[in-house]
Amino acid sequence: MRIRGRRARSEVAEEGATGESAGSPRRDGIEAGRHEGVESAGRRRTLAWRSRHAGAAAVGTAGAGVVLVARLVMSIASLIALLIALAIVLRDVDANATNTIVKGIHEGANFFAGAFTGLISFSGHPKRAITVDWGIAVLAYLIVGSIISGVIARIGRRGVRFERAHRTVPTH
């Protein structure tokens, strides 16, 4: 037991600052140059793979962010459509137009659907005309919001697919 302990200490002393044991290729001058070149090429390959992985991860992260923007666009379009639909319901049930909440909902809906007012006219039925006009506005916001968010999401999903295809480590 004691001999083994001494041998380990002596080997540690021989290793010195290089951290390699005696008789290793680094000790031999000819061998050292050849192995250093191989190590640096290996390091370069490792760095190349790391940078490739980092680039793919960056594209994937950006793609995920773009998908999030697409969801945000669709959420905003849905909220606008909900506001207009709520204003239609409040107008059709004859809610008190002087109430602050009802007045705010009608003003908000008129801001977003005002351009659709007067699209269709019904003689003698002003409520029906506003209901149909603003109903068309609800459909327009939902359809256009869906199209825009779909285009944005498609761009984002391409980035996420690119990351999965160019990642160095399989994700399974």
Describe this structure in words.
With 172 residues, this protein is mainly alpha-helical. It has one domain. 77% of the residues lie in helices and 0% in strands. The protein has four helices and no strands. It is elongated. It starts with a helix and ends in a 6-residue tail after the last helix. Residues 7-39 have low confidence and may be disordered.
- Element-level helix/strand string: HHHH
Helical run tally: 4
Question: How would you characterize the largest beta sheet?
Answer: none
Number of domains: 1
Proportion in helices: over 70%
Sheet/helix structural class? mainly alpha
Strand percent estimate = under 5%
Q: Which blocks of ≥5 consecutive residues have pLDDT under 50?
A: 7-39
Number of strands: 0
Radius of gyration from the CA trace? 35 Å
Q: Judging from the principal axes of the Cα atoms, what is the shape?
A: elongated
Average of per-residue pLDDT values: 74
Distance linking N and C termini: 48 Å
Write the layout of secondary structure elements.
Layout: H1 2-15, H2 29-92, H3 100-113, H4 126-166
What features would you highlight for this structure?
single chain; about 170 residues; mainly alpha; 4 helices; elongated
